[in-house]
Amino acid sequence: MSGLALGLVGNICLAFLFYPVTRGSSILKLIGLTSESSIKYHIWLGHITMIIFTSHGLCYIIFWATTHQISQMLKWDKILISNLAGEIALLSGLAMWMTSIPRIRRKIFELFFYTHQLYIVFVVFFVFHVGFSYASIMLPGFYLFLIDRFLRFLQSQQRIRLVSAQILPCETVELNFSKSPGLSYSPTSIVFVNLPAISRMQWHPFTVTSSESLDPEKLSVVIKSEGSWSQKLYQMLSSPSPIDHLDVSIEGPYGPASTHFTRHDKLVLVSGGSGITPFISIIRDLLSQASTGKNSPRILLICAFKKSKDLTMLDLILPVSGSSTLDLSHFQIQIEAYVTRETESTTSNQDFLPAIWFKPNPADAPVSAVLGPKTLLWLAAIIASSFTLFLVLIGILTRYYIYPIDHNTNMIYSTSWRSALNMLFICISIALTSTAVFLRNKKVYTKETKQIQDLQTPTPMASPGSWFYNADRELESLPRQSFVQATKVHYGERPNLKKIVLLESEGCSSVGVLVSGPRRMRQEVARICASGLIDNLHFESMSFSW
Predict the structure, then answer these.
(1) Residue-wise pLDDT tens digits, 326-376
(2) Do 150 and 241 contact (CB within 8 A), yes or no?
(3) What is the mean pLDDT for each group of 10 consecutive residues in the chain (546 residues)?
(4) Of 2, 204, 428, 458, whose CB neighbour count within 10 A is largest?
């Protein structure tokens, strides 16, 4: 009875397990969550579910062992509960659970990632264990996850047009993709990037650094050369004979439905290293708002780097094209840059490599929303039509195949086969309706895509250079000159975050403090904001991908 009770409670937890990992679902946006911020709920639910299901399994094993019924472990009943299927589901769940331990996940991420694909085995044998009718308690969440996963699969099969790449001296690459004007996203959004030339299996998340309003036809990401995948990309692009075309696939973008940065009088942005990447999109978005006459908060950007060559990441704040037309009269920004391991600058402008412009391929497409601008409407249409199709298919199966066996013979149709056919029809229904909607939206974008591909972008003869390291030269635009004057570099020291935050909060009714960087930096600023010394601080720790 204890084991049975634990199983019932575990099923309730399992019913909510898949909601947080539906990246592209509008359900998350409706409750104010993003795909990144909701992961913690999936982790919590996963721990609770596996603790309960492990206890559930141990209760039955102990009972069978003490009552000399250990052979029950191998029982696969045709009609009732299948014990063997439950044990297979539990073992696959334990494998996912053990490899999700933070130390293993961080050090051997590929082991965690590929082991987590056992969720398919877990779900299939869980359904075999309890039967499809009882497993329907988790159907809403898993059904939404299946739709989201298949739509992401369809989006990932497209090749995206890579327009250009900018190589920075700090072994950092900015990739610029062609974007459909109908695609909308918010600052701090992320995309998953796949490069078949490096690995067909690996998908890496990166923060979008472009602004939807400032870069209407471009989507940019910044990639720091840290791991083996990013190092191979940097070597490919920085080689003496760089390639003229690169196949790229993208999933996303995923991000918040809206941002609340303009509600503050001042924004204090604290970043460490490549943690500056989400702030680039925030500053660009606020810059665009200020140039159109809208109210924009004052910005203090505190960025810490290890070496002076990392300062070149500040060049990415302003886009190369279109910055000369911006009106900065209503935009107030101050940049305090700290170089912690050097006492003077060691980088010159000659370290810059020329931008790489890739040849367009007719088969490539711009980045676009998988369901178009009316995502919620099309998602609802897919859910309704696919479930209706599933009910029709299962009704035909039951009436003309299962019913005659159950009622016209002495046989009773196998519960396992009934469950297998139900799962098959769910997959068929989702695949048919999702593909139809995806192809319909792809057709709408066809004309738009051709217009973008027909544009011949001239290849510049030289790199745009660095406005920071070449500040004495004749600057090409007033916005860049303003940014040079607003930047102050401190060599050989670390920022006194407590002093800076307390000083900047004086005289302001509302100060937003955003932190993106190493864990130690996030914890330090969180302690300052939670100390109670200042009442007008609003703290937010941001996740970033680079």
Answers:
(1) 666 677 888 888 888 877 777 655 455 678 888 888 888 888 888 777 778
(2) no
(3) 91 90 74 77 93 94 91 84 91 94 87 92 93 88 92 89 87 88 83 90 88 83 87 86 85 78 80 85 84 78 85 78 61 83 68 75 84 80 93 88 66 82 94 91 69 48 46 43 70 79 69 77 72 54 47
(4) 204
| Mean confidence (pLDDT) of the chain | 80
> For the residues of 398-446, what is the DSSP string, one character each?
IIIIIHHHHHHSS----HHHHHHHHHHHHHHHHHHHHHHHHHHHHHHHH
Render pLDDT for 134-147 as a digit per residue (tens, 0 to 9). 888 888 889 999 99
Distance CA 123, CA 8 (A): 16
CB 177 within 8 A of CB 248: yes
What are residue 386's phi and psi, to 5 degrees? Answer: -70, -40
**Numbers of helices and strands, H then E, in the chain:** 17, 13
Among 223, 294, 305, 212, smallest CA distance to 253 is for: 212
243 contacts 195 by C-beta, under 8 angstroms: no
Specify whether the backbone of 171 is left (phi greater than 0), alpha (psi in -120 to 50) or beta.
left
Print burial letters for 415-427: b (CB count within 10 Å at least 16), e (below 16).
Answer: bbebbebbbebbe
Alpha carbon distance 248, 361 (integer Å)? 12
The answer to whether the CB of 359 falls within 8 A of the CB of 160 is no
d(CA 43, CA 96): 11
What angle, 0 to 180 degrees and rounded to 10, lies between the N-to-C axes of helices 83-99 and 39-66?
140
Provide the residue type at 497 as one letter.
L
Q: Which residues pair with 120 in a beta bridge?
A: none
Nearest to 89 by CA among 21, 11, 18, 151: 11
